[in-house]
Amino acid sequence: MPKKYSLDAMEQTLRQASDTREGLLGRDARGLAAILQADDEAIRRRGLTHAHIAQHLLALRQAGWEGLGDPVSVPPHFEVRVDAARGTLPCPFGDQGSFAKVNTTVHNLASGQEITFTDLNIHLITTHGFYEGHGAQFRLDPEQLMDTLEMGKIRPCKKHDGMH
Question: What range defines the domain where residue 140 resides?
């Protein structure tokens, strides 16, 4: 069972968490509640959920794992590479278990966009709706993430006799 923290205590933990001096909130001046709310609104604007995004990231990670460090083609036009390092990382929210130090890089060959995420990112998105703060090493900006992976695009209506 996750430990119970006040929002202020959790924010302080996230500012100090990780091996980088910026922590998981990076240089973001916003508080944790504002970060979570803004990212949640971005996801909802596209009609998606955090669970849907995390499932997509996990599927890409699993496809890339087959390459054993070499890029793998994933239809329709993605190239995925998974790199693993020794060790694990705990969830900074206090959840039980730890997450392998695995980085997955997805390159959209059509747009040229690229994102990199970790196994911990997948957990943080699934369980906490947390994409990290601006300036954090593994921040996943929801808009950039959805654009790169072509998720939740709003498609224009086709006109039929002047009507939608």
Answer: 7-148
Strands ordered across the beta sheet of 98-108: 72-74, 78-90, 98-108, 114-118
Residue 25's pLDDT band (cuts 50, 70, 90):
very high
Nearest to 119 by CA among 133, 106, 101: 101
Quick one: CA torsion of 134, 139, 144, 149, rounded to 10 degrees? -170
For residue 158, being part of any structural domain is answered with: no
Q: What is the pLDDT of residue 146?
A: 97
The percent of residues above 70 in pLDDT, for the chain, comes to 86
Q: Is the peptide bond before 76 cis (omega within 30 degrees of 0)?
A: yes
**Residue 137 backbone phi and psi in degrees, to 5:** -55, -40
> pLDDT value at position 35?
97
Q: With b meaning 16 or more CB within 10 Å and e meaning fewer, what string describes 138-154?
A: bbbebeebbbbbebbee
Instruction: Tell whether 2 is covered by a domain.
Output: no
Q: Residue 117 in contact with residue 130, Cβ under 8 Å?
A: no
- Taking the C-alpha atoms of 55, 39, 97 and 64 in order, what is their torsion angle to the nearest 10 degrees? 40
Residue pair 46/146 in contact (Cβ under 8 Å)? The answer is yes
Is 155 a member of any domain?
A: no
